[in-house]
């Protein structure tokens, strides 16, 4: 077993790379991993450490080919909001706008229903979706990259992370380790104050464009209930509100989710045109995704295009084709 460096102080790029390589290769004792990850989380991870962990994960993940311009929309999780599945709905709506979406996700960790749970409740066969991910992305413009299937090196860490009982660096690295190797991405971060650190990591990676967002609640997505922080690579951080995109504010309680069946039913009502907080939250975040994709250039245009994809039945038709694939 290899010994890990002292994590109480920030690690150099070389030390961090060696440490995460050893962890992912199963060369470190579980107790040592638990201590290392906990200490690092307690002091807050650095951009260099996040970058090193992402690079080591990318070396070991099972990849798929993706069309030019494919994006992902996902968050770090851990915001404790237990909301409806916003990024999952955004993925379907954005793909219906003819932007390929390689949705990376997993089962719930801190909420009642993660992306995988809700998609399964909608009728998507997760095993088949994994097997056909490359084909559905090429044919339909959407796929689900089930983290359990594409990151086998993380499987032995699951009980360790569960024992830690709070977020670790692997919550932060997940979005940036997309198996389709997308170059453009909308990433929600549960801590607004952490956006500059996360942005620093992405600037060291090979992105064409990325937008990092955090609602003030805190929320790992753009908030429909108030202001959010936005950091786009190569640009200054900004603040936006729902009104910035021509949308109304809604109380956060109106986005409260439940189990997978509950969230799936809400998502179907959304695709059927139901108005309200869920629709507006999805439109706001879909607009951000369409901007990252270079498909639109302002918030209002993105909202209009996303709304059209819902109201014309394009998003629901896409979901039905995906489930039947």
TrEMBL record:
Organism, scientific name: Sphingorhabdus lacus
Cofactor binding note from Swiss-Prot or TrEMBL: Binds 2 magnesium ions per monomer.
Gene: trpD
Biological process per Gene Ontology, one example term: L-tryptophan biosynthetic process
Protein name listed in UniProt: Anthranilate phosphoribosyltransferase
InterPro entries: Anthranilate_Pribosyl_Tfrase, Glycosyl_Trfase_fam3, Glycosyl_Trfase_fam3_N_dom, Glycosyl_Trfase_fam3_N_dom_sf, Nuc_phospho_transferase
Transmembrane segments: none
Renumbered residue ranges of the record's region Disordered: 229-253
Pfam families named in the record: Glycos_trans_3N, Glycos_transf_3
Positions contributing to Mg(2+) 1 binding: 87, 221
Assembly mode: Homodimer.
Stated role: Catalyzes the transfer of the phosphoribosyl group of 5-phosphorylribose-1-pyrophosphate (PRPP) to anthranilate to yield N-(5'-phosphoribosyl)-anthranilate (PRA).
EC number: 2.4.2.18
Keyword tRNA-binding in record: no
Positions annotated to bind 5-phospho-alpha-D-ribose 1-diphosphate: 75, 78-79, 83, 85-88, 103-111, 115
Chain residues that bind anthranilate 1: 75, 106
The protein's enzyme class: transferase
Needed co-factor(s): Mg(2+)
Positions contributing to Mg(2+) 2 binding: 220-221
């Amino acid at each position: 077993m290899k010994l890990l460096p002292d994590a109480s102080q920030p690690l150099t790029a070389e030390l961090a790379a060696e440490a995460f390589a050893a962890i992912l290769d199963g060369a470190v004792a579980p107790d040592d991993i638990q201590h290392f990850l906990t200490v690092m989380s307690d002091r807050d991870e650095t951009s260099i450490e996040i970058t090193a962990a992402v690079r080591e994960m990318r070396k070991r993940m099972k990849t798929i080919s993706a069309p030019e311009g494919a994006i992902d929309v996902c968050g770090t999780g851990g915001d404790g909001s237990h909301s409806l599945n916003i990024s999952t709905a955004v993925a379907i709506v954005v793909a219906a706008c003819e932007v390929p979406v390689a949705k990376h996700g997993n089962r719930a960790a801190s909420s009642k229903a993660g992306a995988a749970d809700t998609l399964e409740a909608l009728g998507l066969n997760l095993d088949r979706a994994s097997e056909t991910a490359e084909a559905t992305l090429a044919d339909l413009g959407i796929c689900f990259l089930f983290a359990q299937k594409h990151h086998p090196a993380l499987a032995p860490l699951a009980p360790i992370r569960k024992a830690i009982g709070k977020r670790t660096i692997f919550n932060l690295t997940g979005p940036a380790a997309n198996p389709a190797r997308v170059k453009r991405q909308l990433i929600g971060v549960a801590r607004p104050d952490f956006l500059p650190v996360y942005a620093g990591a992405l600037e060291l990676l090979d992105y064409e464009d990325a937008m990092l967002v955090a609602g003030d609640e805190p929320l790992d997505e753009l908030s429909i209930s108030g202001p959010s922080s936005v950091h786009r690579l190569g640009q200054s951080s900004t603040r936006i509100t729902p009104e910035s995109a021509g949308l109304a504010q809604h109380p956060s309680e109106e986005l409260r989710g439940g189990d997978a069946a509950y969230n799936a039913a809400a998502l179907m009502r959304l695709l059927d045109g139901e108005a309200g907080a869920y629709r507006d939250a999805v439109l706001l975040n879909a607009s951000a995704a369409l901007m990252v994709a270079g498909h639109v250039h302002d918030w209002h245009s993105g909202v209009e295009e996303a709304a059209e994809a819902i109201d014309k039945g394009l998003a629901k038709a896409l979901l039905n084709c995906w489930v039947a694939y």
